[in-house]
Amino acid sequence: MKPLHEQGVHELAEALTARRISSVEITEHLLARVQAHAALGVMLHLDAEVSLAQARAADARRARGANGPLLGVPLAHKDIFVTRDMPSTAGSKMLQGYASPFDATIVAKLADAGAVMLGKLNCDEFAMGSGNQNSAYGPVRNPWDARRVPGGSSGGSAAAVAARLMPAATGSDTGGSIRQPASFTGVTGIKPTYGVCSRYGMIAFASSLDQAGVLARTAEDCALLLGTMSGFDARDATSAERPPQDYMAKLHQAQVEGSAARPLNGLRIGLPREFFPATLDRDVHDAVRGALAEMEKLGARLVDVSLPRTELSIPVYYIIAPAEASSNLSRYDGVRYGHRAAQYDDLLDMYRKTRAEGFGAEVKRRIMIGTYVLSAGFYDAYYTQAQKVRTLIARDFDAAWELCDLLLTPTAPSAAFALGEKSADPLAMYLSDLYTIPGSLAGIPGMSIPCGFGQSNRPVGLQLMANYFEEAKLLGVAHQYQRATDWHARMPALIQDDK
Question: Model-level pTM?
């Protein structure tokens, strides 16, 4: 039998249902692994007493005859989601030690299903970053190469799953913060359609873009977790009025026309020509082309399409997202909660010193950009125009769906880069999200799945995108691809010898 840490969500659920193992035993094993691999920097808060109490409660529920696919399965939450039982900091000094009086909706839904919370995962401060180097509590390291970034802002979640510290973790995606780290660490990550998962209790960065999602080892595990997290929430004005979805029941329905040998028969996969430039890194290009060949073997048909406004996505995103961040982060002023400067002369001085001390450099940069584009003299010239172009970007996707069922692209233009490599050049860092931002601006679902390795054994991810509320289609295609390949099952050398 596989060691416990090498088992995914479904495997652990089966072992728990068969009474071959208890939730307490799994939780103790994984807590010990997290501590043994503390150098990766994935965890911001551990509380073994809380985790083991939840595990004992799950075991007691099973002893009383209860069952469920997540009952007793341990996972952890990105520290962008508030939790009652553990501090919630969003990776910032501004919220150091903050104790929420309630759980975020997705946290509560997973807890109701019996999932055990192992802890809170490191992330870029207020989810602003592409390398998980902006956390006030130190960077996260990629388990495939500790000298490289795991991607961001959900880098703690991705690295934890890749290092087999837990079978799955929650994440959030504003411009690619689930998909890009999934690509860099060789795991599976999905961002659903905007509104599928409640944002209630998610510490806000950019409200029209932030969306909760999940990272796991397989599309199958993602389907189970995302289904539990989905559904309308009256407390969230952006929540889609749709019931929770049973993605597991739809998982094998990727294509009705498919057969066992060619399960994707009839599926039209669009290849946006703007996502395959001559400058694309060779290792990424080769891995993605190999995946395309596999998709064709499975019966899919490749179709050339165009998303002509792709090059405008970065400037549009870095007007809209900072503008919303400027508004959302104005609440951190030292008055109601969070950090407050120890010494100040008057109220205005308290505001200035509190925000100067509490926010990191990247957060300050985005607040200043956002405040500028929202100012009276520039609102129409920048913010209004960006929103208009955003609509045009969404229309490009609408036109593409006339020609194809899914879009397939590289997740990122390169494999994981070195820690500190792009820190002095914010624009170079922002370009890491070039391929994920267009889908975020349109609000469509997207996911990244492992499709190979590049230079120095760095994982490469394949991005799949679909029309609104077609998460089941994404998950089904990804599942069939993962049945035919084993990229998602590869483990970093760091943990191959772990017991």
Answer: 0.96
